[in-house]
## 1
Amino acid sequence: MSEVEMIRVDGAAIKAQCEAILVGWGMDAETATVTAEVLLDCDLRGIDTHGISLLALYAGWIRGDGFSLAAKPEIERDGPSYGLINAHGGLGFAVSVQAVEMAVKKARATGIAAVGVRNSHHFGAAGYYARLAGRAGLVGLVATSTKVVCLVPPGASKPVLGTNPLAYAVPRKDAEPIVFDMATSTAAGNKVRMHHLKSLPVPEGWVVDGQGQPVTDPHEAYKLVYEPGEGGLTPLGASPHLGSHKGYGLALLVHFLGGALTGGTFAGSVNGREGKPEGDNIGHFFIAIDPEVFRGVDAFLADVEDVSETLKSTPSVDPNRPVMLPGDLEERVRGERLKDGVPLAPALVKQLSAIADELGVPFQLIDKNAAVN
Amino acid sequence: MSEVEMIRVDGAAIKAQCEAILVGWGMDAETATVTAEVLLDCDLRGIDTHGISLLALYAGWIRGDGFSLAAKPEIERDGPSYGLINAHGGLGFAVSVQAVEMAVKKARATGIAAVGVRNSHHFGAAGYYARLAGRAGLVGLVATSTKVVCLVPPGASKPVLGTNPLAYAVPRKDAEPIVFDMATSTAAGNKVRMHHLKSLPVPEGWVVDGQGQPVTDPHEAYKLVYEPGEGGLTPLGASPHLGSHKGYGLALLVHFLGGALTGGTFAGSVNGREGKPEGDNIGHFFIAIDPEVFRGVDAFLADVEDVSETLKSTPSVDPNRPVMLPGDLEERVRGERLKDGVPLAPALVKQLSAIADELGVPFQLIDKNAAVN
């Protein structure tokens, strides 16, 4: 399938390598363990852009202003159905786990609760935190602000918003929760980067130029998305006649929840960032809803199974590709990777090896198959 | 612009006509006034599919089972941050106003609250209820289940879901709230019907057939959407390479909130409707969030203005068409229609006249311009 022979690494080794690097960067062991768990979960589910590969990205960021891997989150507001946590410039993973657990606990007491996080950084995959609420038997909703400005509103010539992700989870009876996690852009920036690297035309509708015209040349599209100036990614809907105002409205919703409600920075602001903390100051927002209070959890779970059974028994266009629920594919990949290991690109492994060397921490990403032979 | 000369009717006359017909159908005067207010608001904002024209649609429905216009809603559950109201088979408008007001009151006390409605019918435009929360200074989120099955999941050959609408509102400083209201399908069924009536080709991506292929012939598309069997509307995203799995995931979210959490019927179920009330049994779900508790309402409103100013000052592709926020267009139309009246199609006015005659209530939709001459 892939052009390059991948290195197969056991999940345990990926987790240990993440922990070692994070601790090497100054994170305490407990926070590093929680963070590594989130990264590994993405690698296992095939969400390769949000697994251990993020550490190669963070290696460049952590030298910037306002990034404090040793930060201790502080609960600033704490009420019946709400809370606000100041991450004090730390990475967003562990503080987000703390926030969603706080929301779940409060929702069990009052029916629904929301906890915001401010002054945070990247938190990886939004769906992970929604899943935590789902596993606890609650409906979870997650929104986050973003630092990269790349999304062009309908009719605009330049980007103002980010890919503002939205995730939810719904608990199931005797099964993993249904988990959905989407960027509010038509395609993720990373997909455009992959087309650029492979010189494959970009599907019409992913990227527009400064005149609002679709761009399919992969190298021009890459520049429009990753270099400052005009053009960029389209909101979900791709074009006005296919509903790009809807993706735009959803991107705004995600920023209003993740950014405006928490105090996160609006990265695209024309008014500067007066009164905002240094650094990314990303905001996250977590809502937990207890199905028990509305009609009882058993009735709710039975209805979720009804939806699930109905969709899975819906005739499909291709009999070999049945209709799926959100997260089904990732759950299947997780089963495979727990058995066969996680495929990592040699270039990534080399980067991570260099980071480990520089920090003086053990390199642990050993090829599973090489180790056997 | 339009092929047919429209009849211009004052808002007050539209509201009075709605009230008269609803009372004629057995609704009490107070409920009819609230319902008429919602219908008029849509007519004023140019959301013509969800204004007084709905009465022509309901005239066919109210003879069906489980429709009880005289129903009195009953609060079945009432906790710190939650509530559940049984609409007992009534129309969804007034009970939804009651539910969102209940959610707002609870959210002011606890930070966030959600109120569900079950055993309801159509509630018109979701955005109206979100706006009520926004006007009260809170963030509002609205989801509803639907009775018409017309949305085809990615890879499926037949429809299972509805157009499952999602709406939100965000309060603003000294201005009307930002209000967003979308169907989770690429296009509304009504748009396909308009193309069918005008014999205009349907844009590729709105409708698919039973093999998942896009259909652009307006008459074939109309049949696929409005007749039972294979094919129908696509989820927002239109096709797999433009992200239709995202619109599908959003449509499911809306059903989980509006349907599964409240006990609303899943219209597409393969398992029948055992244990569900007679009739449509539509469920609605309203969330209200108080910005005050997270960081203070002034800081929140200032950040919303920052987003608004930034978007409105973003250079546009066409200088005559500036970048807009959700609801801006509707707000402008409202200003025009308050002055010039609401344009109604003669065929609709004739239908409403017949309904009024049959009920023996006064006909009040007088042409504003004819009345002057």
Note: Chain B has a mean pLDDT of 95.
## 2
Amino acid sequence: MKNLETLHWKGEESGRLVLIDQTRLPGEFVEIECRTVEQVWEAIKTLRVRGAPAIGVAAAYGVCLGLQTVAGADGPALLAQLDEVTAYLAASRPTAVNLFWALDRMKRTAAALAGRASPDRITAALLAEARAIHEEDRQMCRAIGRHGAPLLKGVEGVLTHCNAGGLATADYGTALAVVYTAVEQGQTLHVWADETRPLLQGARLTAWELHERGIDVTLICDSMAAVVMRERRVQAVITGADRIAANGDAANKIGTYGVALLAAAHGIPFYVAAPTSTFDLSIADGEAIPIEQRDPAEITHGFGRQTAPEGIGVYNPAFDVTPARLITAIICERGVIRPVDREQIAAVLGDEP
Amino acid sequence: MKNLETLHWKGEESGRLVLIDQTRLPGEFVEIECRTVEQVWEAIKTLRVRGAPAIGVAAAYGVCLGLQTVAGADGPALLAQLDEVTAYLAASRPTAVNLFWALDRMKRTAAALAGRASPDRITAALLAEARAIHEEDRQMCRAIGRHGAPLLKGVEGVLTHCNAGGLATADYGTALAVVYTAVEQGQTLHVWADETRPLLQGARLTAWELHERGIDVTLICDSMAAVVMRERRVQAVITGADRIAANGDAANKIGTYGVALLAAAHGIPFYVAAPTSTFDLSIADGEAIPIEQRDPAEITHGFGRQTAPEGIGVYNPAFDVTPARLITAIICERGVIRPVDREQIAAVLGDEP
């Protein structure tokens, strides 16, 4: 399958982060080079790079870029800058926990060396950590694919919402990794992609990467998922997640909760594919997951043209929470969590710090 | 409340049909004058006029326009032209039964006079019949409002899908007639409008007419309906219908079936408001209702910009069917049908031909 690299680091310590600008897809394939942490922050904020795992990797490299401005500084100055840069990046988007998880890893790496290593060695260790996060993300995608593919045995049609594909990660994706792996194993699959309003990640990104990789995809509006299920065109639903609480409640792109309810109503299994870094065990259940509210203009001016009258109210939550009871299984890099409950999750994630 | 006339006839026998061009809303308020049946056909086909009841009224006037080209012809020539014009208009859109119902009324009117009246008298009778259909549509809206308003007692938030408002009829709408009447009776209501992809009738039309009439409206993407219900922001759902089978299965804008499932999952009543002309008792259940498939470009190039890659599959059914078991009640101009089943429907519609 075609290699479509969502992001990569170019150069060594004084390098830069190269990203596919996902806001330009599918019309244009444009890579941008981020040379400053501000550019990374802007890329995350405006969804040039998006998807919980990819945001984590981008933020880790963003930390490295943020430290380049104090190259040659002493240890305390470097650590002060690190604090500033991680706090800054943490404010880019509130829901995906992988962002905070990656920033924490970067801070822990520096803390372990503080006072014991030169600023240069700390900087080098931070780049190595960002690369490790990146490489682990690749491995995670492959592992999720391997664990998830058997769940699609006998399935002909899969429905997905938003983009939990290669473009949401450093490699193969989470939800789509399962599809890619099953296809590599010889299965024939047809993917039904919800367009995913307001920002159309399904139409722009999921349909694009599936098509680029030679997999049959049919695009539908979000409002058509129910009828596609009723017509028995899909036998499984797989989505990603942006944050999963200790009990299995999963925040994901707005609309996922509705799709999960519709799947349940049609007796279709609903799977969530996400790395362990997406779990936030500090949160008991979905009620406590912060939900990002985005600009009303995404809905009212979404296609480059005003499509709603002035002066009306608009509600634009970027995510919703699917309760654990609606999730048939969670596929993570360590295996399949099923049933989805506190005990199974604790059993699989038990050795997490 | 502000008067926004969806369509009206200007002049006498040699008149023309004036329509609000709904494809230009909300950006521009433009009225177009149809002087030929071809213009009416095009207006129906391209959704300049849409909504099952309004399509019926427009088609009736369209018949009158189609006969103007044979003014002065003899009786047989007039009736031959009538056959041609009604067949032509019937092919404009396949799902809304009100179209066929209105065309049948026009044909019956002519048939009753054929051989007994002059061509001029037949032409005059046909215009009178179109005006009667128009006036009955007005009365129907008011009656639906009166019957439905009590169902909203205690309700603060109502969710609706697509546009079953004034713009879908000659007057007050069907679903929105219930809202307008309740508000006129002093109730405070907040309407949550699904934007209704692909053509955004909710964003462009429902939000527009509610706002113009001074009613609080919040626009959401279709994918947000589930979370709005879960957050207990709505206590009732009301939609229109394009065709209702003898058992109560109701075809309506794509997405309605999903909304009905979500309402059921949250214990929220789901009402359908539609005139008796929307019932098609010749059809036993929803399976037999023809579903219009529309141009994939409505999804891939919505609003002037390409938002999906070339070469992918697209599925674009314009309607879906909500099974009777998910419909709490149907509100028609004769009263409230509840429970929704063959017996209750037959009882209310019993004297229909």
Note: Chain B touches chain A through 57 residues (CB under 8 Å).
## 3
Amino acid sequence: MFMGASTKQGQDIALKSREIVRSLISDKIDHLSTEEKSIVERIVHSTADVEYAELCHISSGFVECSIESIKSGKDILTDINMVRAGINKYSGEVKCFINHPETIKMAKKEGITRAAAAIGYAAEYGFKGIVVIGNAPTALYKVIELVEEGIMDIESVVGVPVGFVGAAESKDALEDTQIPYIITKGPKGGTPVAVAAVNSLIQLSKDNL
Amino acid sequence: MFMGASTKQGQDIALKSREIVRSLISDKIDHLSTEEKSIVERIVHSTADVEYAELCHISSGFVECSIESIKSGKDILTDINMVRAGINKYSGEVKCFINHPETIKMAKKEGITRAAAAIGYAAEYGFKGIVVIGNAPTALYKVIELVEEGIMDIESVVGVPVGFVGAAESKDALEDTQIPYIITKGPKGGTPVAVAAVNSLIQLSKDNL
């Protein structure tokens, strides 16, 4: 199994792609650790967008905290179901509450997005683990708010929401916290970036046993 | 309901984003029809990547064939589950066979990727409708092969596989067929592009009733 490929042909493609990615970005990620390199390489592999080599910022401690969380089988929480659908090799649970009746109720009552309300719902039931935001800046702001208020206690955040409204600012705000993170600077990011980061962490936690 | 947003805050963000997208790309998509513009705008909204304004190529007839297919409730077939998870407002069925036992058997037997075998399985059971390839070039090549051999009969293809190995070439090959298509030129593309295109077509088919 290499980068999600389960057949010989799939693995050959993944290997060739990884070589191309390395030749394109190795000089830009020279300052990163081996594990951080492998996360960024997988993101560029998944998006075919070399810009991510420079847009990805990883806080010190992010890789260790995240691998520890995965090894101890803690839940992974995603903002939307597309992200959950892409994380398919985790032996623990991957949760998403965007369609949960309590989320829908909370969103209406508080006048917030469902993605943000879904984080609120996860905090209420006592979620611990890695939070993965691949789409909604409002969900990332909610994570920051609840952690800073001491209502939510998490291990790390994959914070890569996308869009021209609030995404860049929400990621800047995450950088100003004590939460271990990976972000993509600016408006870009999204579900494939989120999925690539998490699947890479899952792989690293297996290599690292 | 606007661009997938179901709450007031979500709709406000989507509206503001659409305005920003228009200001960034309107000169680049001036030659497109109103429907085509709305598809490309949604792709740029979903990826926060203005490059897609120029990378998206849409064949004449693609919008009409796709809307007709959606209106008549035909199935939508996706290469991977992440794409299926993002298409959430369709009253018809959205199918993905990548984890189907027959697909896994066929991939092993023929030495092809599971994404390609999943297309082969869909052809066998007589799939008709829109095919959506958001990830695997091998799946797009399989669609082209089966349509050209007369084994598969489809309405249109959202052909936006991503990657440095084969993706660009597979999309060039689709452009050389008679199949109505949307593609993204070059290595870039991916699940958010695929989902944005399909969700935009679903919205257009409702506006167009």
Note: The two ends of chain A are 16 Å apart (CA to CA).
